[in-house]
Design goal:
alpha/beta; Rossmann fold; 7-stranded mixed sheet; 4-stranded parallel sheet; 12 helices; 42% helix; binds D-glutamic acid
Length: 296
Amino acid sequence: MDLPSGAQPTQQPIAVIDSGVGGLSVWREVVALLPAESTVYLADQAHLPYGPRSIEEIRRFVIAITESLLGLGAKLIVVACNTASGAALTALREMFPGVPFVGMEPAVKPAVERTRSGVVGVLATPTTFQGDLYRRLADRFGKSVAIHTQTCPGLVEAIECGATDSPQTEALLKGCLAPLIGRGIDQLVLGCTHYPFASDVIATIVGSGVGIIDPAPAVARQVRRVLGTIGALAPEHDAAGHVFVTTGSPVQFAEQLTNLIGVEARATAAVWEGSSLRIGYFDFKEKQRERWHGRL
Ligand code: DGL
C-alpha cells in the first residue's frame, strides 16, 4: 500500500464501500460533484449479496472493512449500501467516534414530500427493512402516507452480472413491481444502491406517472457538506486518484467498472483473513498520475 507520503489530511481519500458494484451509483455522483477528491472504492464481492445475510454478520464485515480503510488513511467513509448502513451505521459511529461517516437510507422523506396519491413504494433488500434506520423512517412518515415495501430477490445478482436490461431482469422486475403498482404508488424509492443501474427498465414498467427516487446525488452533497464542515475538502486543483478494491475477482470488477459506468481502471484484490481484511498493494501516486479515462 502506498498512499501519498506527507499528504495533508485534505488530500487523503474518501472511502466508498458496498457489497459489490451498487455503491458505484453513489461513487459516480461523489466524483462528479467533487472532482479534486481522491477515492478508494471497496466492494466486498466475496460476501455478496449482503441482502439476505443477518444484521450481525453484515456488521462484522463492515467494521473490519472500516478498520482496513482507516488504516489506509481514509478521511471519510461513505457506506454506499442501504443494507450495510441499516445494519452497521449506528455501531460504526459508536466504535469510531472521530470518523465522519455518510450512510444511506431509503429516501422516504422526499417520496412523502412529492406524493400526490399518498401511496409510496420502497424497493430494498430484506435486511434493509429489518434495520433500525428503516424502522425509524417508517415510524416517522408512515402515519401521513401509506408506505408499501417490496424486495426483489435476484435483482442485485442480475445487476452484478451486467444484466441491467435483459428480458429476464425485466420479467423479474415486472413481478416485483406489480404489487406496488397495484396499490397505486406514485413515488418509488430505490432503497438499494444497485437498483439505479436498472432504472431505465424500472421507469418503463412503472410508467411516467410514478416518480423514481435515487438518493445518490443527495448523498454526494452530504459528503461535500461534511467535508466542508470539518475543513477536509481537497484543494480545488488537486489531481484526484481513484483506487478500486474488491474481495472478489479484480479482473471481473474491472470489467464491471467499464460496463456499468464506463470507467477503465485496474482493480486491486483484498483478502479476508479470518475476520480481518488485508488489502493488496497499490501505488496511490501512480493512480494520481494515471490518465483518467472515466466517462462520468
Ligand atoms: N447495494 C446494497 C444496498 O444498497 C445491497 C446489495 C446486496 O444485497 O448485497 O442495499
